[in-house]
Amino acid sequence: MIVEDQALLAMELELVLGESGCDVVGCAMDQASAFTIADREHPDLALIDVNLLDGMTGPRIAQGLVSRHGAAVVFLTANPEQIPEGFAGALGAVSKPFDEDTIRAVVDFARQFIQHRTVADPPRRFRLAPWLMTPPDDIAPH
Predict the structure, then answer these.
(1) pTM for this structure?
(2) What is the CATH number of domain 2-138?
């Protein structure tokens, strides 16, 4: 699932995710449409911009997807200082602009976490969430 208010970037992400073997279940530009899609599709992974059309709703969306659907979340942001402390349950964040290789590596990282609940070496340009830096037995979204 993609939550991004820049339509061209959302379309590019959809293409890269599809080429990486992901089924993109929807694209949202705000909190309401993000929750509508998530409630219908129950995504495994969501790429979420921190600052959307309806404001700084990315962190609330992330918390909802993690708690209600058990989704893995990665923040996308042009303003890293806006990433919430503790990352709101997200695996980490990627700063914009980014390239296709970075997104592919982040998807692979997230896929390993989703399937095995293990944390691999983080991809370049990926800021790992603090809660993932705990011992492996303690890894669970907060």
Answers:
(1) 0.90
(2) 3.40.50.2300
